[in-house]
Write a structure and sequence with these properties.
Helix content is 38%, strand content 18%. The chain has helices at 22-36, 68-84, 99-106, 120-129, 166-175, 190-202, 214-222, 233-241, 289-303, 306-313, 324-344; strands at 57-61, 88-92, 114-119, 142-151, 153-158, 180-184, 206-210, 229-232, 245-250, 277-284, 317-319.
């Protein structure tokens, strides 16, 4: 018997929070960041103090308060604050696909007290998709501390959609005029790029419909105005649990413990479709290595705490602490891979700029 469908929950958090207003924000973000923070200058570890840290640490989050990434960052910050007996404060600087927050940290004093919660969007997708609009170098303008969490996405369809499997969805694409429609939180986000990968690997016709955030895209998906979306469980989970959406595949290397009966894209016949997304912490480029090491130790201790791990795993994600060097190498590797994906999918980065 089919489960009873319930009303869609409200206020579900979104991981695909990279919006569609990059050009508008990126153009002004550099001035905004410089106005709010001191330009970066090399500093000594012990300038006025023999210990670090000895005062409030500020984490710039490139999303509005209340979203999935913001919630997880606050949990880590709270635990870190308890561990070091100092305030660790969140400042939300949403806009420009994360560019406003990224630029604010780029020009901040490199003393370890201003940190960016960066992510795959700010440091991988943006530089690949919008190279002409970038006002920061994703590698050379930052000192990498550690990733925080990583997660994959599910291929989700409306619960009553005729496609109950990837095979069904591909067959439907052959008969639907104009092809299948899929949504995202904006041009160049995770859902967009994985959707284009699926199109290329399955050799189907699709129409990409970008939204200003993943929440309205999921709302239209539930209403049947879209055929599919690639979404994290953090965003789509409440709708899956309420039987408003159906997961027909998992775009990860292995099945998700939260969706054990859902096959991977490879098992469903379309291997090589998926991009692992991460959130992590970064500091201004000239931050002394000894400060980066201390920050790494404290962030990793907080990330590894049982409360954080339990919270993250309940949302089909996993904690992802690394050393600064390995994190930096991971970012560079992801940029190379996503650039290859964009080339294979024939996405035009010269015109793919949101209004």
């Amino acid at each position: 018997m089919e489960p009873t469908k319930r009303n869609a929950p409200t206020g579900a958090s979104c991981c695909g929070e990279v919006g569609m207003t990059r050009r508008r924000f990126i153009a002004s973000a550099s001035a905004s960041a410089a106005a709010g923070l001191t330009l970066s200058l090399p500093v000594a570890v012990a300038e006025g103090s023999t210990t670090f840290p000895d005062r409030t640490i500020i984490i710039q989050v490139p999303y509005a308060a209340g979203g999935g990434s913001d919630t997880i960052t606050r949990l880590v910050a709270r635990k870190m604050s308890e561990n070091i007996s100092l305030p660790v404060v969140i400042e939300n600087r949403a806009g420009g696909g994360g560019s406003i927050a990224s630029l604010a940290v780029k020009v901040a004093r490199p003393d370890g007290y201003t940190i960016l919660m960066g992510h795959t969007g700010t440091h991988v997708f943006n530089p690949v998709m919008f190279p002409k609009d970038m006002r920061y170098d994703p590698i050379n303008d930052f000192s990498f501390i550690t990733p925080m969490v990583r997660f994959d996405t599910a291929l989700v369809v409306p619960y009553d959609h005729p496609a109950k499997s990837v095979k069904d969805l591909i067959e439907l694409s052959r008969t639907k005029p104009g092809g299948l429609t899929f949504g995202s939180s904006g041009v160049g986000d995770t859902a967009h790029l994985i959707g284009e990968m699926f199109k290329a690997r399955a050799r189907i016709a699709t129409v990409h419909v970008p939204y200003r955030g993943l929440a309205p895209a999921l709302t239209d998906l539930i209403a049947g105005r879209l055929d599919f979306i690639f979404s994290s469980y953090l965003s789509a989970g409440p709708y899956l649990e309420s039987n408003n959406l159906r997961a027909i595949a998992w775009a990860g290397e292995a099945r998700s413990p939260k969706l054990p009966d859902v096959p991977t894209m490879a098992e469903a016949g379309t291997p090589g479709v998926g991009i692992e997304t991460w959130f992590g912490f970064m500091a201004p480029k000239e931050t002394p290595p000894e400060i980066i090491d201390k920050l790494n130790a404290e962030f990793v201790r907080a990330i590894n705490s049982e409360g954080v791990k339990t919270f993250v795993e309940a949302r089909a994600a996993s904690i992802f602490p690394l050393t600064p060097a390995v994190f930096a190498a991971r970012v560079a590797s992801d940029i190379t891979r996503v650039r290859q994906i964009v080339q294979e999918a024939k996405i035009d980065t010269t015109t793919s700029v949101a209004p």
